[in-house]
């Protein structure tokens, strides 16, 4: 019976795909874990308890049908498992790789609460879709019946790509405008290959292009066209730029040579992996080789930076974070991976000043202690009067997160409404901005967040744009 494959969490131990040895994986940018074999994937999927209220699905922003595709996987029905997984997500193999499952689906797995170890949901999701690509089960993007209307999508990151796929499926002509030379946004240039190998992103983009979505790369709104010009060319516009402005550190010496922003550093590394010419890398400015590296921050971007520095051959890598390990925002799995690879975490520390001669020589750090919880619920850091310490450094990477750029100024659209944080202001129901026919989704609306939320937002905004465009035809503003 099929049910013989299920509910095995008591007598079958949790087992993630084997990670490559830390010394081996620190020498390259390949993904650190191997993929499940078919029997291993079926065994691990069979640990699912098939609970009546699947908290894994509830805590997934996409509300993926996780228990159902785990059951299908356990029963060896992999194609059906893929089709169900794909029905709610435009990028399941990407989510399987980079979602912080320990904070989302797996962290809320019922059998995790019972002490048996969560089902390895992310690894199974990755396995299902990678298998689908290999077996030819991933269907081409088939456009819907042509509607005679076109949509502009500004930004080729996960929110923009997700929305573009759904809008093309509805039958619209879709044009994606992005300022970078390759599509994918942070998936391409922000996330290192050891978490997300780039062919995984490239094949998704190629599938969209084959489905008739037109990509305009190296196209910057405000330089190559204003927002108003795009509104005149298209029947609706989606702003899905993400947030790219690095948060600043106010400390003496922060402008010294050798103190760099995380995104500049990660983009240079990813470009080198593509074989691009990167002068700032080649002259050593954005290359950690042989250097004592200090990364400031405790989020997932900081983890990407420390682990990239290891692979570039840094002499030492330290991460300074103002709270303790239990209160850091980054994935605990990423911290563990970094520690295995030789990164040293200096908890309860914050930069007070950057020491420099011709370039940075070190970080003068304050010791911190935790006070009362702040608005986020985490205990707020405060300076410990016990004193500070100095950390030698040849390269300091600032990884404190990202804020929105000034889009009304960049786009030549002063009438575009923004919040006091600089994010684009939208109607909560329609996701339309202050400008008629201009919508926004992803991090530019919610602030720096997770890729899975961007995919969800892209899905949601495509639906509301579809409603708007149909009504526009009905009102006689566009020929039916």
UniProtKB/TrEMBL annotation:
Entries under InterPro entries matching the protein: DPD_II (IPR028261), FAD/NAD-bd_sf (IPR036188), FAD/NAD-binding_dom (IPR023753), GltD-like (IPR006006), Helical_ferredxn (IPR009051)
The cross-references to Gene3D superfamilies, in alphabetical order and at most eight, read: Alpha-helical ferredoxin, FAD/NAD(P)-binding domain
Domain FAD/NAD(P)-binding: residue ranges = 150-458
Pfam families to which the protein is assigned, alphabetical? Fer4_20, Pyr_redox_2
Alphabetized, the UniProt keywords read:
4Fe-4S, Iron, Iron-sulfur, Metal-binding, Oxidoreductase
Q: Which residue ranges does the record assign to the Dihydroprymidine dehydrogenase domain? A: 26-136
Could you tell me one molecular function GO term of this UniProt entry?
oxidoreductase activity
Cell membrane in keyword set? no
Q: Which PANTHER family match?
A: GLUTAMATE SYNTHASE [NADPH] SMALL CHAIN, GLUTAMATE SYNTHASE [NADPH] SMALL CHAIN-RELATED
Q: What is this protein called?
A: Dihydropyrimidine dehydrogenase
Q: Which organism is it from?
A: Sphingomonas panacis
């Amino acid at each position: 019976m099929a049910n013989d494959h299920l509910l095995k969490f008591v007598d079958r131990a949790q087992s993630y795909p084997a990670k490559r040895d830390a010394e081996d994986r620190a020498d390259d940018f390949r993904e650190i874990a191997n993929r499940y074999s078919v029997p291993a994937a079926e065994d691990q999927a069979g640990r699912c308890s098939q609970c009546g209220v699947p908290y894994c699905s509830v805590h997934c922003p996409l509300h993926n049908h996780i228990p159902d595709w785990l059951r299908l996987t356990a029963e060896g029905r992999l194609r059906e498992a893929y089709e169900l997984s794909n029905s709610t997500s435009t990028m399941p193999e990407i989510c399987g790789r980079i979602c912080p499952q320990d904070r989302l689906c797996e962290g809320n797995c019922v059998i995790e609460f019972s002490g048996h170890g969560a089902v390895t949901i992310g690894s199974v999701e990755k396995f299902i879709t990678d298998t689908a690509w290999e077996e030819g089960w991933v269907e081409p993007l088939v456009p819907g019946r042509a509607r005679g209307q076109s949509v502009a999508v500004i930004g080729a990151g996960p929110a923009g790509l997700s929305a573009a796929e759904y809008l093309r499926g509805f039958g619209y002509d879709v044009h994606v405008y992005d300022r970078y030379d390759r599509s994918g946004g942070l998936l391409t240039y922000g996330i290192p290959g050891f978490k997300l190998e780039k062919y995984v992103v490239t094949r998704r983009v190629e599938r969209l292009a084959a489905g008739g979505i037109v990509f305009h790369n190296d196209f910057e709104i405000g330089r190559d066209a204003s927002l108003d010009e795009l509104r005149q060319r298209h029947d609706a516009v989606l702003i899905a730029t993400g947030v790219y402005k690095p948060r600043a550190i106010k400390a003496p010496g922060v402008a010294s040579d050798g103190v760099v922003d995380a995104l500049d550093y990660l983009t240079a590394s990813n470009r080198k992996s593509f074989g691009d010419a990167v002068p700032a890398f080649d002259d050593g400015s954005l290359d950690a080789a042989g250097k004592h590296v200090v990364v400031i921050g405790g989020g997932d971007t900081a983890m990407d930076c420390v682990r990239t520095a290891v692979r570039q051959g840094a002499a030492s890598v330290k991460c300074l974070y103002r709270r303790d390990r239990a209160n850091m925002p980054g994935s605990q799995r990423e911290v563990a991976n970094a520690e295995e690879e030789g990164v040293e975490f200096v908890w309860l520390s914050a930069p007070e000043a950057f020491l420099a001669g011709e370039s940075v020589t070190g970080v003068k750090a304050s010791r911190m202690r935790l006070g009362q919880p702040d608005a986020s619920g985490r205990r707020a850091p405060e300076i410990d009067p016990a004193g500070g310490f100095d950390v030698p450094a040849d390269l300091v990477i600032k990884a404190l997160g990202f804020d929105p750029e000034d889009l009304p100024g960049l786009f030549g659209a002063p009438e575009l409404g923004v919040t006091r944080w600089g994010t684009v202001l939208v109607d909560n129901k329609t996701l339309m901005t202050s400008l008629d026919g201009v919508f926004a989704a992803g991090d530019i609306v919610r602030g720096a967040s997770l890729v899975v939320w961007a995919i969800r937002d892209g899905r949601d905004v495509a639906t509301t744009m579809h409603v708007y465009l149909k009504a526009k035809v009905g009102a006689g503003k566009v020929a039916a």
